[in-house]
Amino acid sequence: MAEIHKRAIEGDIAAPEEAEDLVDRHLNLPFANKAAADQLRPAAETAVRRYLERHGATLHQTRYSEQPVEIHPVPGVTVTGRVDLIKRLDTNETSVVDFKSSERAQAENLTRDQLHLYVLGYRELTGQNADVVEVLNLDKAGA
Fold it and tell me: In terms of Cα–Cα distance, which of 131, 143, 117, 133 is closest to 59?
């Protein structure tokens, strides 16, 4: 996803037909056994293709990709993170987007806290408030 969004920032919109090449360059499964890798690779290609088909027309709205953010809740304490995607919507609102799977690897309340930290980080980065927070599921139940 990072390459797709970074290219979009530069005006180069990836096509769904590029899904296989994108997965070839970026899928890294160093600890997966062959059976798992054989299952995950097609799923990754499908997810990338689906994402490009569903969101390709709005990729030009990308403002930041894998954007490092920091918040300073109290003097001497810094919380750092990396926001998957920040985009400008057709409504001229700013959306902070996090990519997940519908099979959550973390509790919903932890995801909510994470997204609130991203919003605070966006504010520290730009001096502006995000208008929308989105979670996009990349598996068949989402994106």
Answer: 143
Q: What is the pLDDT of residues 41-81, one digit of tens each?
A: 999 999 999 999 999 999 999 999 999 999 999 999 999 99
Nearest residue to 61 via CA among 102, 92, 30: 92
E strands of the chain, at which residues? 62-71, 79-88, 94-100, 132-137
Position 96 pLDDT exceeds 90: yes
Global pTM reads 0.85
Closest-CA residue to 55 (of 43, 70, 65): 65
Distance between CA atoms of 126 and 12, rounded to whole angstroms?
Answer: 24
On whether the CB atoms of residues 59 and 90 are closer than 8 A, the answer is no
Contact predicate 57/70, CB 8 Å: no
